[in-house]
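Continuing the series of single-chain predictions for the mutant panel. This is the parent chain; the variants come on the following pages.
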Amino acid sequence: MTMDGAVDYRQIVKWGAFGLYDENKVRAWWGERNELTASELLGKDIPLSRILWVILRDEVVSPAVVHRAALDSAESLLERELADGTYVDLRSSYALRIKRRWLEGQASLGELRHAQRRAAAAAADVAELGDDRARHIATLVSQASSEDSATAFRKQFYTATQRLGQDDHGQLMRRNLIEALAGS
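Parent structure:
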């Protein structure tokens, strides 16, 4: 398993890129090259959602790297929202602490699953308060605490950009993924 795996143009064609994206656009993203690393893709002016479709695969980027980037992004957003006065359920903060401990090998998968269930319950409870922002933040944290790296990153990205309208969080996630790749 690679940390910053190279993605071959022919491979993305096999994965079905042309069923999702225009062939000319995909070829333009790759330029004259047949292979790009995940870091190189992240550095290109390509929508992050398209890049995630390519790189959030275990054979391209290690799940540990994706988990770190997802967690760093969720923690940053949670800190910012707390500073802005957004209601954050304690179970959400707890889930991120357990996820950090799990990544460091200090918490079991069972503890992570328990924390994630509590975060999901917090999201459901917060939804009843009628505060959409607090609900979306709780949902995002629940997603980020997932044991599946692609889910933790991808769902958090879509919640941040589509539900919260925070493209800056999408850019933060891109930077965190680049940093996680560089540090791997």
